[in-house]
Design goal:
There is one protein chain. The protein contains 2 helices and 9 strands. It has 146 residues and is α+β, with helices and mostly antiparallel strands. It has one domain. Strands 1, 5, 6, 8 and 9 form a 5-stranded mixed sheet that branches. The chain is globular, with a radius of gyration of 19 Å.
Length: 146
Protein backbone atom coordinates (compact mmCIF):
# COMPACT_ATOMS: atom_id res chain seq x y z
CA UNK A 1 0.00 0.00 0.00
CA UNK A 2 2.79 2.39 0.93
CA UNK A 3 4.67 1.74 -2.38
CA UNK A 4 1.48 2.38 -4.35
CA UNK A 5 0.97 5.77 -2.64
CA UNK A 6 4.62 6.61 -3.29
CA UNK A 7 4.27 5.84 -7.02
CA UNK A 8 1.07 7.86 -7.21
CA UNK A 9 2.76 10.83 -5.56
CA UNK A 10 5.73 10.47 -7.91
CA UNK A 11 3.44 10.43 -10.97
CA UNK A 12 1.59 13.51 -9.74
CA UNK A 13 4.86 15.35 -9.10
CA UNK A 14 6.22 14.46 -12.54
CA UNK A 15 2.96 15.56 -14.19
CA UNK A 16 3.11 18.92 -12.39
CA UNK A 17 6.74 19.42 -13.44
CA UNK A 18 5.87 18.60 -17.05
CA UNK A 19 2.89 20.97 -17.08
CA UNK A 20 4.98 23.75 -15.55
CA UNK A 21 7.71 23.32 -18.16
CA UNK A 22 5.21 23.07 -21.01
CA UNK A 23 3.34 26.21 -19.98
CA UNK A 24 6.61 28.13 -19.67
CA UNK A 25 7.73 27.02 -23.12
CA UNK A 26 4.42 28.03 -24.68
CA UNK A 27 4.45 31.42 -22.96
CA UNK A 28 8.05 32.17 -23.86
CA UNK A 29 10.99 33.10 -21.69
CA UNK A 30 12.28 36.67 -21.87
CA UNK A 31 16.01 36.78 -22.63
CA UNK A 32 18.59 39.38 -21.63
CA UNK A 33 20.85 41.31 -23.99
CA UNK A 34 23.84 39.03 -23.37
CA UNK A 35 21.81 36.14 -24.83
CA UNK A 36 20.72 38.19 -27.87
CA UNK A 37 24.27 39.46 -28.43
CA UNK A 38 25.70 35.94 -28.19
CA UNK A 39 23.20 34.78 -30.84
CA UNK A 40 24.26 37.52 -33.30
CA UNK A 41 22.34 40.56 -32.09
CA UNK A 42 19.54 42.21 -34.04
CA UNK A 43 18.98 44.83 -36.72
CA UNK A 44 16.15 47.32 -37.16
CA UNK A 45 14.44 48.21 -40.41
CA UNK A 46 12.38 51.26 -41.43
CA UNK A 47 9.02 51.40 -39.63
CA UNK A 48 5.74 51.72 -41.52
CA UNK A 49 2.09 52.14 -40.52
CA UNK A 50 -0.68 49.67 -41.21
CA UNK A 51 -4.20 50.63 -42.28
CA UNK A 52 -5.22 51.09 -38.62
CA UNK A 53 -2.33 53.48 -37.91
CA UNK A 54 -0.25 50.98 -35.92
CA UNK A 55 3.50 51.22 -36.32
CA UNK A 56 5.15 48.08 -37.71
CA UNK A 57 8.88 47.78 -37.04
CA UNK A 58 10.94 45.28 -39.05
CA UNK A 59 13.45 43.50 -36.80
CA UNK A 60 15.91 40.80 -37.88
CA UNK A 61 17.13 38.30 -35.29
CA UNK A 62 17.71 34.56 -34.97
CA UNK A 63 18.29 32.73 -31.68
CA UNK A 64 20.23 29.82 -33.24
CA UNK A 65 23.57 31.65 -33.26
CA UNK A 66 24.12 30.73 -36.92
CA UNK A 67 23.70 34.26 -38.33
CA UNK A 68 25.30 37.63 -37.61
CA UNK A 69 23.04 40.69 -37.46
CA UNK A 70 24.56 43.49 -35.39
CA UNK A 71 27.56 41.40 -34.30
CA UNK A 72 29.13 37.98 -34.84
CA UNK A 73 27.47 35.18 -32.84
CA UNK A 74 29.46 33.53 -30.06
CA UNK A 75 27.04 30.76 -29.00
CA UNK A 76 24.93 28.07 -30.64
CA UNK A 77 21.38 27.44 -29.40
CA UNK A 78 20.06 24.44 -31.29
CA UNK A 79 17.31 23.60 -28.79
CA UNK A 80 15.53 26.97 -28.76
CA UNK A 81 12.96 28.70 -30.93
CA UNK A 82 12.08 32.36 -31.02
CA UNK A 83 8.51 32.72 -29.76
CA UNK A 84 8.21 36.45 -30.35
CA UNK A 85 8.88 39.98 -29.23
CA UNK A 86 7.59 41.80 -26.19
CA UNK A 87 7.44 45.50 -27.22
CA UNK A 88 6.66 48.40 -24.88
CA UNK A 89 6.86 52.19 -24.85
CA UNK A 90 8.37 54.36 -22.15
CA UNK A 91 7.82 57.98 -23.14
CA UNK A 92 9.45 58.28 -26.58
CA UNK A 93 11.62 55.20 -25.99
CA UNK A 94 10.68 51.93 -27.70
CA UNK A 95 11.67 48.84 -25.72
CA UNK A 96 12.03 45.36 -27.21
CA UNK A 97 12.50 42.06 -25.39
CA UNK A 98 12.95 38.73 -27.18
CA UNK A 99 11.22 35.57 -25.96
CA UNK A 100 12.33 32.00 -26.57
CA UNK A 101 10.81 28.60 -25.99
CA UNK A 102 11.31 24.95 -26.73
CA UNK A 103 10.57 23.43 -30.14
CA UNK A 104 7.37 21.52 -30.45
CA UNK A 105 4.74 23.52 -32.27
CA UNK A 106 4.35 23.55 -36.02
CA UNK A 107 5.97 26.57 -37.58
CA UNK A 108 8.34 27.11 -34.64
CA UNK A 109 11.68 28.48 -35.79
CA UNK A 110 14.88 29.97 -34.49
CA UNK A 111 14.12 32.96 -36.75
CA UNK A 112 12.25 35.65 -34.86
CA UNK A 113 9.11 37.25 -36.27
CA UNK A 114 10.25 39.82 -38.83
CA UNK A 115 7.76 42.52 -37.85
CA UNK A 116 6.94 43.89 -34.40
CA UNK A 117 3.59 45.67 -34.01
CA UNK A 118 4.31 48.64 -31.75
CA UNK A 119 0.72 49.86 -31.71
CA UNK A 120 0.04 53.59 -31.75
CA UNK A 121 3.27 55.58 -31.69
CA UNK A 122 3.68 59.30 -32.39
CA UNK A 123 5.49 60.32 -35.58
CA UNK A 124 9.10 61.40 -35.22
CA UNK A 125 12.40 60.02 -33.97
CA UNK A 126 12.31 57.34 -31.28
CA UNK A 127 15.25 55.68 -29.53
CA UNK A 128 15.03 51.87 -29.52
CA UNK A 129 16.52 49.88 -26.65
CA UNK A 130 16.70 46.23 -25.78
CA UNK A 131 15.07 45.74 -22.36
CA UNK A 132 16.41 42.95 -20.17
CA UNK A 133 13.89 41.10 -17.99
CA UNK A 134 15.43 42.86 -14.95
CA UNK A 135 14.75 46.31 -16.48
CA UNK A 136 18.27 47.20 -17.64
CA UNK A 137 18.36 48.63 -21.17
CA UNK A 138 20.86 48.54 -24.04
CA UNK A 139 20.85 51.03 -26.92
CA UNK A 140 19.98 49.50 -30.27
CA UNK A 141 19.39 52.56 -32.46
CA UNK A 142 16.96 55.30 -33.39
CA UNK A 143 14.07 54.98 -35.80
CA UNK A 144 12.03 57.63 -37.62
CA UNK A 145 8.34 56.82 -37.25
CA UNK A 146 6.23 58.10 -40.18
Amino acid sequence: MRACRHRSLLRTTLALIFLTLASGAARGEAKDWSFVASAGGLTLGQPTRDSEGHVLLPVDADVSGLHAFSQPPTALNSALVCTGWRPSLSGQQIRLTLETGLPGSEGASSLCPKVVNLGEVAAGPHPVVYADPDGRTHEVGTIQVP
